[in-house]
Amino acid sequence: MQTAASNPRAELMRNPNFKWLLRGGVISMLGDQLTMVALPWLVLRLSGDTMALGLVIALMSIPRAAFILVGGAVVDRYSPKTVLMLSKYANAILLGLLAMLVLRQHSVLTLALGGSLQLSLELTPHITLMLIYALALGIGLAQAFSVPSGTSIMPLAIPAQYLQAANGVLMGLRQLTMLLGPMLAAALLAFSGNSNAIGGAGSMADAHGLAAAFAFDSLSFIVSAWTLSCVNMQTASGRAAGQVAVSVWRSIGDGLLMVWRDVPLRLCFIYWGTVSLFIGGAMQVALPVLASEVLHGASALGLLMAANGAGTLLGMAAAAAIGARLRFTSFGSMILLMDALAGLLVMGLAAAGNAWLAGALLLALGVLSGYVQINVFTWIQRRVPPQMMGRAMSIFMFIFMGLAPISAATTGWLLKLISLSQLFAGGGIILVTFAAVAYLFTPIGSITAQVSETPDTPQAQ
């Protein structure tokens, strides 16, 4: 026990459950990044239409946001392991079909060169694009169940004292795959492309590389499902047999009621939802505009994204390594302080006239974001009863998946009325103001990381 207390990370790496989760997680996360690059490229190669790309992204995002609360209820009704494995199998089937579809499209277009060229070029891309729409919808729906189950499984597989370190390692690896995955996808497309395929809007010159990316992701889901089957789960103590008969909608209501009755949880969720609604999606729109209008180059956007990603990885690593040893203030005060500092950095972007200064600011923003993410996830996992974890996590993820896109759309409209510098300055001021108001006029600042009361207790401790 002394070893666990002094070096929880070393003990964590010897935990069999975590080893299986780590192996499957790395493979699956890398496959996800390949698809995130390959799918937009596929749509653009098939259609040359940015509206088609937007529709594919919407078809993946809308069902994920709309059904994530249902997914959380289903996770708690059965088990995160069962739901996660089923979602992995569903994703494996969908991506396997997509890989075969790409290869079939390539063969049809090649065959058309020897015969009915006009007919094939006219009909096949349209039919294939419709099938891609259907597959994108299915992938988004599967994610509505995989997200709450994936974020709920850790407390039932890992001892509570290792949660901080476990979250840091897995989320840090996810961030690392976000840096390495696109490079692997680009290399795959470069080495596997078929230079003899026809060009133009219907071109599938990268058919072999695209199919390989989707096939790898499909296989990664199968492998990660197998590794997940090797994890020995604890039984959620509050999941009684009679709860199975409760309807999904009643279960969602119970989850919302649980969050509402837990005052610290309710205050934090309302605060995070407010921040997400006002400025959560602004950076998704503002950074490409900054690279285009101010820094004048696509390479600048790559530098900015890489700097932010590297900072996030550093912040996550710090949270995993340091843990509670850096608890110089309460959990709530730490969150608000980090948000205020982030607001100041966002204001600094208003004056960033070169890529290096903007990159340095985004690196610092990433460090704050990564550190906060690990602490927030660990706090929720320790606070919420295991039998309610799926619903709590689905509500938490809905805050960002459902509200941030509204913020992004509003930002696009605002940039027609105000300058980019005004947007950064105003966004930073809003974030600092929200943090200050929450600290001065709400009990959020007094919320601690220790859970000393049941969720029904109305004290903000």
Main sheet properties:
none
Give the CATH H-level superfamily of the largest domain.
MFS general substrate transporter like domains
**Helix content class:** over 70%
Number of strands: 0
CATH topology of the largest domain: Growth Hormone, Chain: A
Total domain modules: 2
* CATH architectural arrangement of the largest domain: Up-down Bundle
* Strand-pairing-aware structural class: mainly alpha
Which consecutive residue ranges, at least 5 long each, have pLDDT under 50?
1-5, 107-127, 194-204, 237-244, 453-461
Can you walk me through this structure?
- The protein has 461 residues and is an all-alpha fold.
- The chain has two domains: 1-234, MFS general substrate transporter like domains (Growth Hormone, Chain: A); 243-454, MFS general substrate transporter like domains (Growth Hormone, Chain: A, Up-down Bundle), CATH 1.20.1250.
- Helix content is 79%, strand content 0%.
- It is built from 17 helices and no strands.
- The chain has helices spanning 2-6, 8-13, 16-47, 50-77, 80-112, 117-152, 154-157, 163-192, 207-229, 248-261, 263-280, 282-294, 298-322, 331-349, 355-383, 389-414, 420-441.
- Helix 3 packs antiparallel against helix 4 (50-77), helix 5 packs antiparallel against helix 9 and helix 14 runs antiparallel to helix 15.
- Mean pLDDT is 78; it is low at 1-5, 107-127, 194-204, 237-244 and 453-461.
